[in-house]
Amino acid sequence: MAGDLSPDVAETRNLTLSDAGLTPGELLPMGRRFRIVLVLGFLTALGPLTIDMYLPSLPAITTDLHAGAAAVQLTLTGTLLGLAFGQLLVGPLSDAMGRRVPLLAGIAVHVLASVLCVLAPNLAVLGTLRVIQGLGAAAAAVVAMAMVRDLFDGMAAARLFSRLMLVVGVAPILAPTIGGLVLNWASWRGVFVVLAVAGLAIMGAAALVLPETLPRERRRDGGVLGTVRDYGRLFTDRVYVGLILVAGLAMAALIAYVSGSSFVFQDEYQLSEQQFALIFASGAIGLIGATQCNVLLLRRWTAQRILAGSLLAGLGFGLLLLLTAATGLGGLLGVLVPLWLVLATVGLIMPNAPALALSRHGEAAGTAAALLGAVQFGVGALAAPLVGVLGVGAVAMAIVVVAGMLAATAVGFLVVRPHRLPADHTSPPVTVVH
């Protein structure tokens, strides 16, 4: 049953982690652990699928609902806002009620909003429903991170975040392709049918496979005032705030690339749509490959050392990108090579910064994960309009990328000081849930 971690670890019912020397995830049989991690991957994919699957439909929505392109693009902004604010709401709820109830309720909201999007009569209704979709998808994102923190700690959590980053990297690439295929046999409304079906499938898998990972004795039921206190306490942790800012600023560098790359490579370098698709995919492969290399690097170095090295390397590659973009040195390859290297460093920063941040607040993992996700979406979302304001060329994209990496590096070394962090963080004893 989903609510029981495993009969194979029943003998540990009365043991705490400090007694057993293991996290709950490490006590699980390999097969059960694999199924849980697989479903957690599906949960992390729901947000990117919701954001990106309908991108090919934007021109069709513009025509069908008689709206301007800018107004239709605001429905995407609404989804991002829903994801950001939804995490702030769901995180404390999951700390008070446990993980499963807010998770399943949030996905149900996502499914209902998807069905209603199919019936949306105008852009105003569609935009409102997209915000609600984001709110529902936020539950999947924040609870997945909180469950990782419930089950694993330290290096094990960093390795699992690396695996989940594979899903986060692949989903945005596949989502527009899936949306395009749907448009071959249905209108833009068919995309939301697929999202509804995907939500139902993920909800069913979560209900069947995921256990409740937060014991009743560790739940926090302080109401609104308790939630405010929890967020206030998080903001007093200098290192935690620095780590989530590092994650958000690295996300800003990534978003600058995503939002500006099509203009840079198709308009400035005159690449065809097919050539641009290959370039974009290659960058994504570099990002994803780095997240998986992180698992190997963690066998030799701590997450703190990898984070510090990645920040410095990312800033250096970003400055090289700005130099080649401004001077034209090396032409297309002069831009691509340092850009790919920056993306690779982002792929190393993204798993390690969240793992280190969440390891500091196991007692309020849902709230801590919520603030982390909200900052990532919030700070990252600022990068897209900045690229447009600066001119959408290679130099504009490079400036925002460098700004993101420079700020992340400054916060990392002046606020977080990873070289001074202990090799691992320990959490209060946690009773294994059965």
Automatic annotation (TrEMBL):
An annotated GO BP: xenobiotic detoxification by transmembrane export across the plasma membrane
Localization per Swiss-Prot or TrEMBL: Cell membrane
PROSITE patterns cross-referenced by the UniProt entry: MFS, SUGAR_TRANSPORT_1
Residue ranges crossing the lipid bilayer per the database entry: 36-55, 67-91, 103-125, 131-152, 164-185, 191-210, 239-258, 278-298, 310-333, 339-358, 370-388, 394-416
InterPro entries: Efflux_drug-R_Bcr/CmlA, MFS, MFS_dom, MFS_trans_sf, Sugar_transporter_CS
Coiled-coil ranges from the UniProt annotation: none
SUPFAM superfamilies: MFS general substrate transporter
Main location group: membrane
GO MF annotation list: xenobiotic transmembrane transporter activity
Membrane topology, from the record: Multi-pass membrane protein
GO CC term, one of those recorded: plasma membrane
Assigned keywords, A-Z: Cell membrane, Membrane, Transmembrane, Transmembrane helix, Transport
Residue ranges constituting the Major facilitator superfamily (MFS) profile domain according to the UniProt record: 33-421
UniProt similarity note: Belongs to the major facilitator superfamily. Bcr/CmlA family.
PANTHER family reported for this sequence: MAJOR FACILITATOR SUPERFAMILY, POLYAMINE TRANSPORTER 2-RELATED
Protein name: DHA1 family bicyclomycin/chloramphenicol resistance-like MFS transporter
Organism classification: Bacteria, Bacillati, Actinomycetota, Actinomycetes, Micromonosporales
